[in-house]
Write a structure and sequence with these properties.
By secondary structure, the protein is mostly helical. It contains seven helices and no strands. α4 packs antiparallel against α7. It is elongated and about 90 Å long.
Length: 198
């Protein structure tokens, strides 16, 4: 097998990156191969592992950059970094039993953490909606005028709506932190397993 076959396979495994990111990665490793006088498929496998393994390392590096730029410069995208990190995990050549175990653990975590977060988000929306409903309900107490009920409805609006909005904002921050932690863990694991110097 020749070197072009290696880079063709690598390009196929990098399909979840943008065109510019994929081209940049392919160009980097092509230049590296030329400078190191690597001229065949087997030599690239000896240096970087299979195309699938190298793709996982590239995904992990890209996800790390995306998450780091989102936490330091606010111009990155945590959700994009998360999905690229998941692409790294899927691309990594695990054994069959390890793949099944990771899938089961991931699915269990997704269901349990997802259901807890979903219930909190529903609660936050419900609290905010109850506050807004209290505002509309207060108009019912203008004619005939009922000062106690009017003030109670307005008070409910002034308390419940901000509490619901703050709760929702905190949940969004929590979700971002969880996504960052998962992405960082996955990318660190893959970078340790691929462990090559380019």
């Amino acid at each position: 097998m020749n070197l072009n076959q290696y880079f063709s396979e690598l390009s196929q495994y990098l399909k979840h990156l943008s065109d510019s990111e994929r081209d940049e990665a392919l160009e980097f490793y092509s230049e590296y191969a030329a400078e190191a006088e690597i001229d065949c498929y087997e030599a690239m496998v000896n240096r970087f592992g299979s195309p699938r393994k190298l793709a996982a390392a590239i995904y992990a590096e890209t996800a790390t950059k995306e998450v780091n730029s989102s936490t330091t410069h606010k111009d990155g995208n945590i959700s994009r970094g998360f999905w690229i990190g998941m692409a790294a995990l899927v691309s990594f050549p695990f054994s069959f039993s390890a793949t099944i175990a990771l899938f089961c653990i991931g699915f269990a975590l997704l269901i349990s953490v997802g259901s807890i977060l979903f219930s909190f988000i529903v609660a936050a929306f419900s609290i905010a909606a109850a506050g807004v409903w209290s505002l509309f309900r207060s108009f019912l107490f203008i004619f005939p005028f009922n000062a106690g009920a009017l003030l109670m409805s307005l008070g409910s609006f002034l308390v419940l709506t901000p509490v619901g909005c703050v709760f929702l904002a905190l949940l969004i921050k929590l979700v971002k932190k969880i996504m960052t932690a998962i992405t960082t863990s996955v990318t660190n694991y893959i970078q340790r397993r691929t462990n090559h110097e380019a």
